[in-house]
Design a protein that fits this description.
The protein has 14 helices and 9 strands. By secondary structure, the protein is of the alpha/beta class. It has a domain of 274 residues: 3-Layer(aba) Sandwich (Rossmann fold), CATH 3.40.50. The longest helix is centred in the C-terminal third of the chain and has 24 residues. The chain is globular, with a radius of gyration of 21 Å. The protein starts with 6 loop residues before the first strand and ends in a 9-residue tail after the last helix. GO terms for molecular function: hydrolase activity, acting on ester bonds. Pfam families: Lipase_GDSL.
């Protein structure tokens, strides 16, 4: 989304997150003495908010908010709706998912940042199917998500009006009518580097696309040709990848980092990204949201491996990340010009997470350099929770921690990130 809106998360007394927005473009003035109309960007904010609220019978909260001229008032109304969603959902139990969601389905590709359990079915070290993962999820059990609870994409799905999450494609749940709301093809340790993904027994992006082709066939048998075609065309597609390529491959692999600069390696990844988007477009995708890389130098694993006991983030790694993010942004703009009807939005997660890490207390957190669960110091153990230290090595209150393990945010941080990005994706709706 273009313009000046930038949402930051501030912690409220109840431990919930509220949104605070920085200045946006000037509003359009109406006739003297009449109500002022909102700048088009604010009107879009109200559109998505009121449509979501309307799905739960809460649109009255926006009757006046959408006539106001300050983004803070709009966001207050948005927070009111979010706070009442659980009650609204329970009161609308007779409504089907299609009556509330703003898009028919969500298709997700990428790495551990968006994997909801595909790696549970693979012979790989990179799994999250054991405690303490999932401790604070709705089921209080490990699901394969690399967090204590929900991922940022889970919160995004809820914001769009979904009352359940698209299943991991390799799971038994990915069948029948469950396919109508989409599927998740992501795999921890996957990325734009196909060889690296295969070496870690993850599902490379090319294979994720093969699974999507297979999914389309299954969807057609469940929904029929016309409805399935509509679902494929109007769905939102999410891609989150690149972290594993750098943090679990390039920086720890002398055969790469002694031969190529990070920028050279990044160029090859951008080429893979471009090919992936073109292939996905060829399969019918038209609305694609791509997450930027987070500030990798601020992740606990990076600090452990490359921080050398210095305060703050690893600045060299973050500089590499910012260069890569600019290249992905440029490639996305070029693809949007080349491919008719394609909408691409880059979700900038770098800034909100960087701000949280470097102003921890301002966002209601206490710890940003260590994960809530105890990790190891070598190999894959640097990145993941250590299952052998469950009792002694896991914090009691994950809401105080920005990170859950060595790489992945806690549920509280995931919610903060999702809230900060909510309006960036408005262009993908409708």
């Amino acid at each position: 989304m273009t313009g000046g809106l930038r949402a930051n998360i501030v912690s409220s007394r109840g431990g919930r997150s509220a949104l605070r927005t920085s200045p946006i473009p000037p509003r359009v003035a109406g006739n003297q003495g009449s109500k002022q109309s909102l700048h088009p960007e604010n009107q879009l904010q109200c559109l998505i908010s009121s449509r979501v609220a309307g799905g739960f019978g809460l649109s009255h909260h926006f009757t006046h908010a959408c006539m106001r001229t300050t983004p803070g008032q709009i966001m207050h109304a948005w927070g009111t709706v979010k706070a009442q969603w659980p009650e609204a959902r329970s009161g609308n139990s007779g409504k089907g998912q299609e009556s509330t969601a703003l898009v028919p389905a969500i298709m997700t590709f990428g790495d551990s940042s968006v994997d909801v359990g595909n790696n549970n079915y693979l012979p790989t070290l990179f799994k999250a199917n054991y405690p303490p993962y999932g401790r604070d999820f709705t089921t209080h059990r490990p699901t394969g998500r690399f967090s204590n609870g929900k991922l940022a994409t889970d919160f995004t799905a809820e914001t769009l009006g979904f009352t359940s999450f698209a299943p991991a494609y390799l799971s038994p749940e990915a069948s029948g009518k469950n396919l109508l709301i989409g599927a998740n093809f992501a795999s921890a340790a996957a990325g734009f580097d196909e060889k690296a993904a295969l070496a870690k027994h993850a599902i490379p992006l090319s294979k994720q696309l093969q699974y999507f082709r297979e999914y389309k066939g299954k969807l057609g048998r469940v929904a029929g040709a016309n409805k399935s075609a509509s679902i494929i065309k109007d769905s939102i597609y999410l891609l989150g990848a690149g972290t594993a390529d750098f943090l679990q491959n390039y920086y720890v692999n002398p055969r790469l980092n002694k031969v190529y600069t990070a920028d050279q390696y990044g160029l090859s990844l951008v080429g893979s990204f471009t090919r992936f988007v073109k292939d996905l477009y060829g399969l019918g995708a038209r609305k694609l949201g791509v997450t930027s890389l987070p500030p990798l130098g601020c992740l606990p694993a990076a600090i452990t491996l490359f921080g050398f006991h210095k305060p703050g983030c690893v600045s060299g790694i973050n500089a590499d990340v910012q260069k890569f993010n600019k290249r992905i942004d440029s490639a996305s703009k070029a693809l949007q010009k080349q491919l008719p009807g394609l909408k691409i939005v880059i979700f900038d997660i770098y800034k909100p997470l960087y701000d949280i890490v470097n102003s921890t207390s301002n966002y209601g957190f206490k710890e940003a350099r260590r994960g809530c669960c105890k990790t190891g110091r070598v190999g894959a153990t640097v990145f993941l929770c250590n299952p052998t230290t469950l009792a002694a090595g896991t914090c009691s209150n994950a809401t105080e921690y920005v990170f859950w393990d060595g790489v992945h945010p806690s549920e509280a941080a995931n919610q903060a990130i999702a809230d900060a990005l909510i309006f960036q994706g408005i262009g993908l709706i409708g």
